[in-house]
Amino acid sequence: MKAYIIGVGMTKFEKPESRDWQYWDMAKEAGTKALADAGISYEQVQQVPVGYCFQASTAGQRAAYELGLTGVPVYNVNNNCATGSTALMMARQFVEGGISDCVLALGFEKMKRGALGGGTDGGDFATSPVARHYGVMAAGHGFEMTPPTAQIFGNAAREHMERYGTTEAQLAAVGAKNHRHSVNNPYAQFQDPYTVDEILAAKTIHRPLTKLQCSPTSDGSAAAVVVSERFVVQHGLHDKAVEIAAQSMTTDTEESFASGSCIDVVGKPMSRAAARQVYESSGLGIEDVDVVELHDCFSVNELLTYEALGMCADGESGKLVESGATTYGGRWVVNPSGGLISKGHPLGATGLAQAAELTWQLRGEAGARQVEGARVGLAHNIGLGGAAVVTVLRRG
Hints:
The protein is α/β, with parallel strands linked by helices. The chain is built from 15 helices and 12 strands. The protein has a 10-stranded mixed β-sheet with strand order 3-2-4-7-1-8-12-11-9-10. The longest helix has 17 residues, at 148-164. The radius of gyration is 19 Å and the shape is globular.
């Protein structure tokens, strides 16, 4: 059974503590927008997977109850930075499996200012779920007093530079592209353009990554209504429907750790495997894709993901972004929303915000960000610890 997105919604992503609202307020805003976009009521929703990372157990119910008290099942989802896409995947599985005809996937995060703790939540790295990942990093690069997530991705960048000759300017070009794209996104946390030189001159977080190449902590929420083909037909929603053509989640294998490389430990093998699976199941390849929303938590991860998705050969990603192939007028438009670097990164909402952007793009509703003639979109969402979710969306 096919699954379709018929409605999406999101809040503006904002700097933590910049607005006086609670997580249930933002979830209500995003969920209400998604339902209105779909043209349905909450009473038609049969299941609600809700993603978040930093709130207490059953926060999903507290958020969903703002939309209605109908007694439907609510599932609390936490899969690190891949949480939003995991909630979307649950919704798709409910529909494709014939369990439900209408599911609301909801994600939100209310975060604290400052760098993420790398999965420790202020505790001991020895007991962290990502201790094995950081252990690989420490064995090869040591452990410095810089933000741990920036450190592990920064070390992946150093390896890429040493192995392939990637330059700091090529890394900065990712940030420049995504900040430039976000100028036209009213939902983005930042809407200021920066040149490559300005990005290189910004404060260094962990060499070679500067502040303007790192995703910020953010408050925000996003939602998607996922339904069956039967529901689309019964309610005459063909004009809104975007098909989830394929979706795959992969987790770490021995390949992630065997090489001792931060490039592998931050998830490139997971991403490559998930991409391969969706290409096989959808019958589509990267050559068929028009627009991509990918997990640029740090500039280097966008480059690693180009390679994992098959957009270029290993080691060629720096040249790819430098060539203009991943912006307007190029072969693909990658992160027209501004990506995590500029749009923001409220962990539980990120994957669903990617789905919202791609839905708008494939419907031709993205305004000044519109990718001309977009018919196939790909979303990539990854979390350390680990999970990689790749989703292919298609408009008939």
